Amino acid sequence: MMGIVGLCALMLPLLTGCWDRLELEQRAMILGIAVDEATPADLRHAGTTHKLSRPPRGGGATPVRLTAQIAVPGRIPLGPGDAGGGGSGGGGGGGGAAGQRPVWVLSASGYTMEDAVSNLQNQVAEPLFWGHLRILIMSEAVARRGPSPISDWLRRNAEIRRTLWLTVSRGEAGALMQATPPLERVPALYLWSTLARAQQLGRLPLGHANIFWRALSTTGQEPILPYLELRQQQNIFIRGLAYFRGNQMIGTLNPWEVGVFMTVKGLNPAGASAYVQVPGTGQFVMIRSTLRKSHLEVFWAQTRPGIRVRCHAEVAALEKTGGQINLSSVAQTRAVEASAARDLTREIQALIGRTQRERCDIFGFGELVRAQMYDYWQHNVRTKADWDRIYAEMPVEVEVTVNLRRTGTLNR
């Protein structure tokens, strides 16, 4: 008898069922959001979701306008048959009818991020769900003012994934949420895949939120984010990287400088291309890096630390501009390698010098000094401002080697 009672007691938890289930159609899944500065007109039409006798001014509170892409249930492509730019849905009802957009774009404004999100919720019947948020784009104006309020709101939301891509847009960020690229029916997922593919092709470093927050919280490194631009209302162009000093964006790197930055960091896969002049011919060879290696060494330069940067790049020849170039010749191959090494050395020195003048250590040299010269760090570096001052005057030595491994098989 006691055995039967015990068995029934063990079965009770199995009889509860999914009492707290929530169907996909009963939540509004946010795929991407854009953050712009709100105008007074935006705030007048926003309404309020709270009692507020005096709007927050100062103290980092900046009115924002959110533009969000919300997935429409039943219209999200589920397979290859639904991936086209507007075709009818296939089996299972995953694609929706032709001409129906798979996302709903809404905009809301507020005095803070949570205020804007509350106003956004007033426009949607179902509760907002942030677990599928893939990309957040902030305008350059917001980034230059400082994204701390955005980061604070993201880190307090338990649904936000740390693999969320954070980006900066040139101009209005909301316009990128309105873009309709023809290669993907879901614009936010197209933005996400564009960044992911660029990283896989060696054009960008990872721009996940956790990487940005980690760099923001360290004393010896400044954060970076991908820098985007919308062209012709639907083309997403990766302009390079936006870099920050402390909490504020202060400048950008163009696509070539991104490759230089990734060479110093030794980030792979490699994918940057460049023209190299062949000495004595006046002609050029287009090369593309296939592998990067970097060794950063801290040394003592009289009374202060210095950094020695040793970089090695393996490259492939893509094309040449004239018949005078013979890459089957060992002498000309070595000449191309030496010319490429000189050019890359100058570019690395120029980029490091520029960041030193701006007192912005995007390479993380400070973290190397902290790890390898801990006593010096403890006595001389208390804040980021201390390291910025030391970094601006720190001697940096650069050594670069290039190996041309693939010359092609057509007439070399």
From TrEMBL:
Which compartments does it reside in?
Membrane
Q: Where is the composition biased (Gly residues)?
A: 81-96
**What GO terms in the biological process aspect are recorded for it?**
spore germination
Its main localization is membrane
The domain of life is Bacteria
Database matches in Pfam families: Spore_GerAC, Spore_GerAC_N
Q: Where is this region: Disordered?
A: 77-96
Q: Which InterPro entries match?
A: GerAC_N, Spore_GerAC-like, Spore_GerAC-like_C, Spore_GerAC_C_sf
The membrane-topology field of this record reads: Lipid-anchor
Assigned keywords, A-Z: Germination, Lipoprotein, Membrane, Palmitate, Signal
Q: Which terms in the GO cellular component ontology are assigned?
A: membrane
**Residue intervals of the Spore germination protein N-terminal domain:** 20-229
Q: Residue ranges of the Spore germination GerAC-like C-terminal domain?
A: 240-408
Q: Which family does it belong to?
A: Belongs to the GerABKC lipoprotein family.
Q: What is this protein called?
A: Germination protein, Ger(X)C family
Q: What organism does the UniProt record list as the source?
A: Kyrpidia tusciae (strain DSM 2912 / NBRC 15312 / T2) (Bacillus tusciae)
